[in-house]
Amino acid sequence: KREASRDPRLLNSWAVEQVETSNDFCTESFAWHIISNGLNLQIEHHLFPGLNHCHLHLIAPVVQETCREFGVQYKVYEGWSD
């Protein structure tokens, strides 16, 4: 259903594929950031693999807003119960 209403330019988009096949986890946890070396922000890491992990949290809100704007599913799990 979402595919039918999506902008046709996004149907075969590499970036959309990266976002919709990844998910972020424990984004508010400094401990998980340290344990995972910043890779708890998988979506941002897949979109910008050359960006230092210390900066991923800075672009996460922009990526989330852009996904919302274009109707791209952005998945984030903040805890084990999500």
Please provide a written account of the structure.
The protein has 82 residues and is mainly α. The protein has 5 helices and 2 strands; from the N terminus they run ααβαααβ. The protein has a two-stranded parallel sheet. The longest helix has 15 residues, at 56-70. The protein is globular, with a radius of gyration of 13 Å. The model has no long low-confidence stretch (mean pLDDT 89).
Secondary-structure blueprint:
Elements: H1 2-5, H2 14-20, E1 24-25, H3 30-35, H4 42-47, H5 56-70, E2 76-77
Parallel strand pairs: 1-2
What is the count of DSSP helices, taking H or I runs of 4+ residues?
5
SSE ordering = HHEHHHE
Report strand order across the widest sheet: 1-2
Instruction: Determine the structural class based on helices, strands and strand pairing.
Output: mainly alpha
What integer is the average pLDDT? 89
* Secondary structure: helix percent: 40-55%
Q: Give start-end ranges of low-pLDDT stretches.
A: none
The span between the termini is 24 Å
Question: Into which percentage range does the β-strand content fall?
Answer: under 5%
- Report the strand count: 2
Cα-atom Rg, whole angstroms? 13 Å
Global geometry: globular
Largest sheet features: 2 strands, parallel
